[in-house]
Amino acid sequence: GDTPLAVVAIDDIGRAAVAIFKNKEKYLYKDFYIVGEKLPANEIAQKLSHYLGIDVTHINLSYKEYASLGFPGADDLANMFHFYRQFPHIFNGNRDVSKCKELIPDLVSTDSWIVKHKQKLLD
Prior knowledge:
59% of the residues lie in helices and 7% in strands.
């Protein structure tokens, strides 16, 4: 629904790790949470619809509905999304987009990630 999810491109995780290792004196013994954007699932669905040219709709499932979907890991994902929904201040609290942009000024946006991976997403 409308709870922001911290999203990040996997390539940015690697670039952040390299930047942190290059600046050990600044980051040694400190936590650093990588995040590119914080977007609600509804907005992610809208972006997917726009760039892929298909209708993508976020369906807001309850914890029990998600856990009962029957695919491997459904219960784990249900727990994760339940936590995000119940405690967004904890999940998003340490994830600071501006701090990440100081480390990696050209973080990959959700929009550009979708455009880059459009064909893979449609296959």
